[in-house]
Amino acid sequence: MILCVGQSASGKSLLLKRLQNIEFQATNYLDIPSTVPTVGTNIGFIKTKSKTITIEEVGGSMAEIWHQYYSDSQTIVFVVDSTNMSTIGDSCVLLCQMLSDTNVINTKHILVILNKCDKCCNQRKDEIMYLLMIDNLIQSLPNQQITVYETSCLTGKGLQLVYDWILRYN
Ligand SMILES: Nc1nc2c(ncn2[C@@H]2O[C@H](COP(=O)(O)OP(=O)(O)OP(=O)(O)O)[C@@H](O)[C@H]2O)c(=O)[nH]1
Ligand SMILES: [Mg+2]
Question: Nearest Cα to 58, choosing from 81, 32, 79?
Fold first, then answer.
């Protein structure tokens, strides 16, 4: 099972919808499926020719109980709204808390998604990574493989990479 966490409105529910409907080659989706804030959890299934992978989102408003789901997850996807500078500090704290949880220390593969890269903004990927202290985390956690991708669930950018990562490690 993949656990998908991240702050409210970072784009987890839309990501789940996109991953279940594989048309990543699209440079621009025509549709933007509606989402509502997830209260509790939201489960999706990614079907491939050989297997079905379960992905479980736990809403951002449930951050205090994310830790209850860590031990059941094979991999974790942490979604960040990379365009919201007012929440990036909180995302950093939540990411550090998650990575220091005893049940996550054995989770080898973690994917950090810098979402909403379609939005007009001046921040560059390395600046967001600096604010999230990603390089420090990677150095301090040599037994875990932390991957970072930029995505847009609006245009589809980066979703193929996410999909390939999920298939590789689940
Ligand atoms: N511009 C842009 N908007 C996005 C993107 N991904 C999601 N959104 C929008 O962001 C809003 C919140 O998306 P959700 O997927 O509901 O966010 P969430 O992380 O599931 O939020 P919670 O369930 O409350 O934790 C919605 O209006 C989405 O359409 C993106 O890549 N780009
Ligand atoms: Mg949601």
Answer: 79
